[in-house]
Amino acid sequence: MTIHVVGNVCVDTSFRLERLPQPGETLNALAASEGPGGKGANQAAAASRTGADVMLWAPVGKDAASVWIEGVIAAEIPALWLTRLDLPCDRSVIMVDRCGENVIVTAAACADAFDPLAMTALRQTWAAGDMLLMQGNLRPAVTTACLHAAREAGLFTVLNPSPLPTEPLDLTAVSLIVVNRPEAEALTGKADPEQAVRALVAAGVGSAIVTLGAEGALLLDAASALRLPAREVAAIDASGAGDCFAGTLAGLLAQGALLSTAATIATQAAGIAVGRSGTLASFPTRAEISALTKTTKPENE
Questions:
Q1: Which residues neighbour 21 within 8 Å (Cβ) at sequence distance 6 or greater?
Q2: Alpha-carbon gap, residue 256 to 253, rounded angstroms
C-alpha cells in the first residue's frame, strides 16, 4: 500500500521562550531555529520513518526557499511531487514556552491556491488499496473533493483536519479521522472525548481517534473502544506531536498493522517527540520506530 500524503510544506521558524508573550509585549527568545515543516511534510516524514512507501503531493513557491525545502525533504521522502506556484513559499512561526506549550501562525498562500486533482497526476498515480492522508491546510472544498475521489477509487482515507476550517466538514468519505480534544469538541459539540468519538463514527466516519495529550488517546472502531496511555515524559515542545502521531499511525496501518497496534505505537512515538525540541527534528528516527514496534504491546492484547 502506498500512502499519498496531500498537504502543505512550509518553512518553520521556531522561537523558544521563557513564557509566551502577552498582547503588545516584546520578548527576547532563549533560542531560535529554522527548518522545513508543514503538516503535510511532517506527516509524510513520520510515515516514511516507519518504513512505509510514501508519496508527498504539496505546493511550494518559486523562491529560494523552495529549492532549500526540496533538498531537505527529499532526503526524508524520495517520492516528492512538488507543484511550484508563482507565490512565496508558505511559512510558519512557532513560539514555545518552557512547559512545551506553543502558539503557531502560518502564512498559507500556496496551500490555499493548491488543487491537487486539477494541478497534479495524483488521480492517475494512486491505485485501489492505497491510502490517502490529508490535513486541514488546503481549502475545505479541495480536501472534500480529494477524499471523495479517493474513496471512489478504492483508497483508505485518513483525515487529520487540523487546522479546522470555519465551515462544516463533509466526513462521509473518511475511513479514519484523527483529531485532538478541542477539534473533536468543535466538530461534534461534545466536550467529553468518548461522546465526541462516538459522534464522529455516527456521522459516517469509519473509525475515530481523539488524542488527549498527557492522557494518551481514545480509539473507537467497529471492533473496539480503547484508551491508550501516553508515554511518561517531561514535555519540552508539543509542536508537531499530532503530526508525529498521525504520520506514524498511517505508516504502520499501510504496512498491515491492526488499528489498535498502530495507535498504541503512534502514541508512544508522539511522546518521544514531545520530549524534544522542534517539529520534524523531534520525531523518532526510523531505528527508534523499529524499536517501538518490537517493544510496544497493544492495549487489547
A1: 27, 95
A2: 5
DSSP string, 109-168: HHHHH--HHHHSSHHHH--TT-EEEE-SSS-HHHHHHHHHHHHHTT-EEEE---SPPSSP
* CB-facing half-sphere around the CA of 217: CA atoms within 13 A: 31
Q: How confident is the model over 180-194, as pLDDT tens digits?
A: 999 999 999 999 988
How are beta strands 225-228 and 10-16 bridged, if at all? unpaired
Torsion, CA 271, CA 276, CA 282, CA 284, rounded to 10: -50
Residue with cell 502564512: 107
Q: What residues contact 227, with CB distance under 8 A and at least 6 apart?
A: 216, 217, 218, 219, 299
Q: CA 163: distance to chain centroid?
A: 10
pTM over 0.85: yes
List b or e across 278-288, with b for residues whose CB sees 16 or more CB atoms inside 10 angstroms. bbbbbbbeeee
Rounded CA separation 21/175 (Å): 40
Residue pLDDT, tens place only, 236-256:
777 788 999 999 999 999 999
Q: Please classify residue 222 by burial: count the beta carbons closer than 10 Å to its beta carbon, then call 0-12 exposed, 13-18 middle and 19+ buried.
A: exposed
Question: Can you tell me whether residue 67 is helix, strand or coil?
Answer: helix
How far is CA 152 from each of CA 50, 67, 126, 213, rounded to the nearest angstrom? 27, 35, 12, 34
Q: Are 38 and 92 in contact (CB under 8 A)?
A: yes
Which of 118, 128, 135, 129 is closest to 56 using CA atoms?
135
What is the grid cell recorded at 219?
480509539
